[in-house]
Specification:
By secondary structure, the protein is mainly beta. It contains one helix and ten strands, in the order αββββββββββ.
Amino acid sequence: MKPIYPFALYVLATACTSTPQKTGAAVAGCYTYAENNSRVAAELETHDQTVEGTLTYDLYQKDRNQGTFNGILHGDTLIGVYTFQSEGRTSKREVAFLRQGEQLREGYGDSDLVGDVQRFSSPNELVFGQGVVLARVPCED
């Protein structure tokens, strides 16, 4: 039997204790979508895997709404609650985005009212990128 070298033990020990990389910082910044007389804008900040910021929807022939976003980044999927004002009322709904490069693709799926928040019925079955696709842009000062 050959002896185990100390260097080999060190490599094995450090490989098993490496810390995961924080990916939240990669989603921080400003994003916009502007097509067909509609505009969506997001300005996001991250704290580890927590993401928060502002979100504005100004969709063609719909009421404009703006508010805050608070969510968590799970890998490349960002899911959180959008609290917004529309027609003088405060509403909450869950929103999801899939990060792909410099884009955030909004996810769509069935939802149910849970408490005072409209939540996705099946978050694992969301469809991404068939509507709003936000592109990273420089933040305005």
